[in-house]
UniProtKB/TrEMBL annotation:
Keywords: Coiled coil, Cytoplasm, Cytoskeleton, Microtubule, Motor protein, Repeat, Signal, TPR repeat. GO terms for cellular component: cytoplasm; kinesin complex; microtubule. SMART domains: TPR. This is Tetratricopeptide repeat protein. Residues 1-23 form the signal peptide. Belongs to the kinesin light chain family. It is found in: Cytoplasm, Cytoskeleton. GO terms for biological process: microtubule-based movement. GO terms for molecular function: identical protein binding; kinesin binding.
Length: 364
């Protein structure tokens, strides 16, 4: 090889090395931002999680619009935005991640099951149960085929399917799925007890909604204990468990025990998610119920007004939650001699409920 050819080859090799080094650096930047964002999400720091995952998405685009890394980031970003109450943007990202994975990975890949589950969860959280259920079923079938019937991923999807059956009134199917999920998690959690908490919480709230308070309390208490130990006292998941346990006590008439739990849950939600998040509105309505029962009408009214204000900013987000807040407000108004205003609130609540159609017929 002559000197010119050797020099040209060296130039080409140096150019290729530079491109490879740039690609490796970009890959490292993507991984760093992505991992930091996902860790922040797991710790309940939603603003940081979105910022880091948006940066990771920018890095991943350089790999191409069909690169699985872009799908991974968009999938995880969808979870963050869904938790922040931004359902439409979460849906767009989850659909994009699923499309990329279907094209790049084929029909039988574990990451495809994860994307099916993510999009189903986004639909679920938006109340689009008819769209969510078949995606959960596809995810469950694929996970069972690829990983076996006792995989933790199977438990997670069973949890989600059971939640939909619970809402639709299929109580027998929901309880069976929850119990199977819990059995899998008990066998596989090992040194990761946090993985037990979602199923303990979901089965506990299922029993709570069904009036089976004695069955609900140990499950909800255990879920709260696990979450507090693993996540600390300021995580939104801890607030969710506090809210459920507080509501259980309220339903039992133990309002003095309910009120501090609901108050603590509300403070965590406001700090972690912001004052206008739907979780804040939902918890405010429950707090109003407890305060009203304790004769604290002024605080109950303040909580109701806060909840109603949040719902009025996004009236289609949770119409049944909006109706419950109006009904609690009507109770306060009647307690304080404002019957005409109470009737107005009750009429608004009825209209919201009627807009959702008849409740499902329970499967007994």
């Amino acid at each position: 090889m002559n000197r010119k050819a050797t020099a040209r080859l060296m130039t080409m090799l140096l150019g290729a090395s530079a491109i490879l080094a740039t690609a490796e650096a970009r890959g490292a930047d993507w991984q760093s931002e992505h991992d930091a964002g996902w860790a922040a999400f797991k710790q309940g720091r939603l603003d940081e999680a979105e910022r880091r995952l948006r940066a990771a998405e920018g890095e991943a685009r350089a790999f191409g619009e069909s690169d699985p890394r872009l799908a991974t980031t968009r999938d995880h970003l969808a979870w963050v935005l869904c938790a922040a109450g931004e359902g439409a943007e979460a849906e767009r990202l989850a659909r994009s991640a699923l499309a990329i994975r279907e094209e790049a990975l084929g029909a039988e890949h574990p990451e495809l099951a994860a994307s099916l589950n993510t999009l189903a969860c986004v639909y679920d959280m938006q109340g689009k149960l008819a769209e969510a259920r078949p995606l959960y079923e596809r995810s469950l079938a694929l996970t069972e085929k690829l990983r076996g019937p006792d995989d933790p991923g199977v438990a997670a999807t069973l949890d989600n399917l059971a939640t939909i059956d619970h809402v639709l009134g299929n109580d027998a199917g929901a309880e069976a799925a929850y119990r199977r999920a819990l059995a899998i998690r008990e066998r596989t959690a090992g040194e990761r007890p946090l993985e037990l908490a979602p199923t303990l919480y979901n089965l506990g709230t299922f029993y709570l909604d069904g009036g089976r308070f004695a069955d609900a309390e140990p499950l909800l208490s255990r879920a709260l204990s696990i979450r507090e130990e693993a996540l600390g006292g300021e995580h939104p998941d801890v607030a969710t468990s506090l809210e459920a346990l507080g509501w259980l006590h309220a339903k039992q008439g133990r309002h003095g025990e309910a009120e501090p739990l609901l108050r603590r849950a509300l403070a965590i939600f406001e700090a972690a998610l912001g004052p206008d998040h739907p979780h804040v509105a939902r918890c405010c309505a429950k707090m109003a119920h407890a305060c009203c029962a304790l004769g604290q009408d002024a605080e109950a009214e303040s909580c109701c007004k806060q909840a109603i204000s949040i719902y009025e900013k996004a009236p289609g987000a949770d119409p049944l939650g909006f109706a419950r807040a109006l009904e609690e407000y009507a109770k306060v108004l009647r307690n304080t001699g404002r019957a005409a205003q109470a009737e107005e609130a009750e009429a608004r609540a009825r209209a919201l409920r009627e807009s959702q159609g008849p409740p499902p017929t329970p499967d007994r």
